[in-house]
Amino acid sequence: MKKMNKIKKSQILLLGSFLILVGVYVLLNGYLKILREEIYEDFRLSFVEEDTKHSGDSSKVTNLEGVNNLDTTNSNQVSNSNTTSTVAPKKGYSYIGYLEIPKIRLKRGFLNKDSKYNSIEYNIMVSYNADYPDVNNGNFILIAHSGDAYISFFAYLYKLRVGDKAYVTYGGEKYTYQLVRIEEQPKTGTIAIHRPNYEVSGMTLITCTKDNDSTQTIYIYEMI
After folding, report:
1. Each residue of 69-127: pLDDT tens digit?
2. What is the pLDDT, as a whole number, of residue 18?
3. Domain 2-223: which topology?
4. Domain boundaries in the chain?
5. Residue 30 CB coordination number (10 Å)
6. For 101-151, what is the HEC assignment?
7. Which of 104, 102, 100, 160 is nearest to 124 (CA)?
8. CA 117 to chain centroid
9. pTM for the model
């Protein structure tokens, strides 16, 4: 009887040890994936910073072909449907600029909107009907996932408040934006962007609403 109890205890101990090892492996594997992506990100950002210092021609930074993963309607509406590409992204692509939001420690590059990797499955996506920051009175529209995945680049936008600043480096210039409006809209396939002032350049960030699967949140900025 004592021998049987010892065997059972040994089996429970072995099972417990195995489960602990599996848990540690899962946690470490997820952490290493995030760390690897951050290293790649720092590497790519170092190139775009160097490019923007020496050249105002951002079209030279990338020469990848473009595919439309996000349909758009007009200048005030953005479709939120997207098609996931089955092609694995190449780490060799170069950003044409990057977005910084110091409050949430976000610094992430973006690609030309014609790039095949300009997709929310790989990067912060530039909407296909967006204007670049150097367009007078235009609207620079960026879309990204929220959540817990390593591609959830807008996971912490919910922490932002009206008045917070964001910065975009593009074409050798650094543009400053201030958050002026935050609103939620239901997921209906399109998003209406309500800019308070169409006589100033703007930026719009779009992502899923935290803890709400039925709505998306729109963060509307104005250039200052």
Report:
1. 222 233 345 544 333 333 444 456 789 999 999 999 999 999 999 999 999 999 999 99
2. 73
3. Sortase; Chain: A; (2.40.260)
4. 2-223
5. 13
6. EHHHCEEEEECCCCCCCCCCCCCEEECCCCCCCCCCCCEEEEECCCCCCCC
7. 100
8. 12
9. 0.65
